[in-house]
Amino acid sequence: MMSQKILASMLISCAALVSHSAFAADLEADMKTLAKSTKAFAEAKDIDNAKQQLVIMRQAALSSKLSLPHKLEGLPPENVQVKEYQAGLDQLVAEIDRVTVFVDKGQLDQAKTEAINLVNIRNENHKKFR
Fold first, then answer.
1. What does the domain layout of the chain look like in residue ranges?
2. What is the model's pLDDT at position 17?
3. Which residues line the annotated binding site for heme b?
4. Dist. CA 83–CA 103, nearest whole Å
5. What is the second-level CATH architecture of the domain 27-129?
6. pLDDT (tens digit per residue) in 63-86
7. Given a cut of 50, is residue 19 above it in pLDDT?
8. Fewer beta carbons under 10 A from the terminal one: N or C of the chain?
9. Residues that constitute the known binding site
10. Got the DSSP string for the chain?
């Protein structure tokens, strides 16, 4: 009986570690996707490619909200830092949406100029949470 309890608690601990590692890996993958798509957007030569990169960026930013960076791991959702992290991602999504409006209007050069704010948001939040 005792060995079953020990085994059960070991399995639960392993499952928690695996899921924790999966979330960290997901966040890292999302951040790499954001970086890659931001670069591809800056190099986009046409509206369709630019739109595609913005869609990818938006999806990665939204997906990032499902995980926490290592610095915030274990903190409850109502923690001030966790809320700031979520707000930073919301700000990023809002900026992606704002840049998308320029692309939708066919104003690719203007969109690229405005997209510098994406980099600024990233840099600001990396200082806080990376």
1. 27-129
2. 42
3. 31, 126
4. 30
5. Up-down Bundle (1.20)
6. 999 999 999 999 999 999 999 999
7. no
8. N
9. 31, 126
10. -HHHHHHHHHHHHHHHHHHHHHHHHHHHHHHHHHHHHHHHHHH--SHHHHHHHHHHHHHHHHHHTTS--GGGTT--TTSHHHHHHHHHHHHHHHHHHHHHHHHHTT-HHHHHHHTHHHHHHHHHHHHHH-
